[in-house]
Amino acid sequence: MKRLIVIHYSELGLKKGNRDYFERRLCRNIDETLEGCSAGRVRRISGRLLLELQTDSDIDEIKRRLGKVFGIAYYAQAWTGVWNIDELCVTVWEILKDVPFESFRIDTRRADKRFPVTSEEINRDL
Predict the structure, then answer these.
(1) Residues 123, 108: contact at Cβ < 8 Å?
(2) Mind listing the pLDDT tens digit for each residue in 95-122?
(3) CA 96 to CA 64: how far, in whole Å?
(4) CB 80 within 8 A of CB 4
(5) DSSP 3-state of 111
(6) Are 51 and 7 in contact (CB under 8 A)?
(7) Which of 46, 58, 79, 80 is the most buried (most CB within 10 A)?
(8) How far apart are CA 115 and CA 96, in angstroms?
(9) For residue 31, which of 22, 41, 23 has the smallest C-alpha distance?
(10) Residue 30 in contact with residue 49, Cβ under 8 Å?
(11) Positive/negative CA dihedral, 21, 109, 126, 72
């Protein structure tokens, strides 16, 4: 299971013919800002950026530094998953078993609608 940080940006998407330039510049700024944090490279996907994390990545320091990068609207930690709801339940439990919380919410958004279970069914099962 691979850990990632999904990075959303806002106004870069509005920059018509310059969007590619601004996305590449934001990736470069993130790479420079995270120098020395054991973070992987940033890669672009449709409308977002993915930052691959390594096993020794300092998550708290990465989050602190990302909060100072101009152009980032939101970021969240993520993990790669599997295409099986039972294995997904086990993976989620492994991630959260040592995290204290009083309440929680699961809000699923399937980027790939070929996943054999609906978002509501995933929310309920998890």
Answers:
(1) yes
(2) 889 999 999 888 888 878 888 889 999 9
(3) 22
(4) yes
(5) coil
(6) yes
(7) 58
(8) 23
(9) 41
(10) yes
(11) positive
Residues 80-93: tens digit of each pLDDT: 877 888 988 898 88
Residues 6+ apart with CB under 8 A from 126: 88, 89, 92, 106, 108
Helix/strand number for the chain, H first, E second:
4, 4
Strand partners, 87: none
**Amino acid (1-letter code) at residue 59:** I
Query: How far lies 73's CA from each of 9, 13, 65, 67, 106, in Å?
Result: 5, 12, 13, 9, 21
Residue 114 DSSP SS3: coil
Confidence of residue 12 (pLDDT cuts 50, 70, 90): low
Distance CA 111, CA 59 (A): 25
- The pair phi, psi for residue 59, each rounded to 5°, is -60, -45
- Cα–Cα dist 20/68, whole Å: 22
Could you identify the residue written with the tokens 């993990």? 79
pTM for this structure? 0.80
